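Entry
Fold in token form

___
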Amino acid sequence: MEDHIQAALATFDVGFGPMTPDEDIIRTGHVSIDAYISPERFEREREIFRKTWLNVAVDSELNNPGDWVVREVEAAPASILISRGTDGIIRAFHNVCSHRSLKLVWGEQGCDRQFVCRYHAWTYATDGSLRGVPDRQAFGDLDPAETALVQIACEVWKGLVFINLDPNPRQTLAEFLGGLTDLLEDAPLDKFRYTARMTGTVKANWKAGVDASSEGYHVQILHRETAGDMVCSKENPFLHFLSLDFFNANRQMSNPGNMEFQLPDSRPVSKLIFESIPQPVVKSGEGTGSFDIPGLNPANAPDWSNDLIAIFPNFQLNLALNGFWTMHYWPVTVDSMRWEARYHFTKAPSSWRERFALEGSVALNRDIATEDASCMEVLQTAMQARARPFARFGTNEFLCRHQAAVIDAIVNQKAPHLAAMAAE
């Protein structure tokens, strides 16, 4: 465990300068309850979402010129318009008209050759440039550079679209991701072009969502009727991780599965689902080995199920045998968040059987997410009493420790260069 502690204490930089994770949290696992219920703490955490790289889309949502999506980053707060221009380039803009700052695009997804403000019909091209202004002579000489949509730093990696709301980001996306770009160089993320998406609101702090998906300690108990027997084995009932590594503020954790898992004949519908489309965490079915690439399962464990790639602050990639899925936890208020899950497949279902199986698979994951959400909402309410000053994270919840230690360093500005300045 000391090796993990030392690795977790490595200096990181996510756009605020070099910092070191809080050592007390890393070593003890004690995290103040105020981290989840304090409005003042939440206000300081907002800055994280204004300075770091955030995954907001996948490029398969923007296949054609003119395709666009709108994403809300409530913590900033900001509405983001992401579009593929006629030149094929994906760009991101503040979703705000340059005339009176009204929200420009009010939908969630579409395809248009231009964007027209519904207030006074100012019109913009898909590259953000101003195209038309009714009664233009009333505005004198409009500077095209000043009246274009305000562009946001945007980069695409492995088909994943990231933005940075800082007008002058301190880092490139590659610098922010650290060694993850090398680790996942051969990962075929951009080959999975068909996605199923779920989203919802949970009345709990956003970090409770990140915590829940960062450890398997609760699976045997909370998910005993849904996923427990699929991943929990007699040899590893509490899902102790197989390996752990750190890349800047990001993390890689290899998780075990139950290699003896088989559905009984008494569950014919579930068998139909699992036999019709490959399930990511099950070692069977067509497509096994999609993510059999160097870097994953570094311990070469025979009971490997999936690798969790946790990208700071709120994005998680889960790479498994037959595919991958992602999770986002977006802060809304100190005690509410918006979560989003995406399940990625190589192709759309080609038969009614495959369609039923896909929908059934997503429904199973919906049930698992509902179990987590219900527990998190009760947890949020219980914390308000402050009966205990801190939460306790065990060694098998090490990713939760690291996430908390990194955030604590940022909100308390524990940067070495700041400490040196204070000493002077």
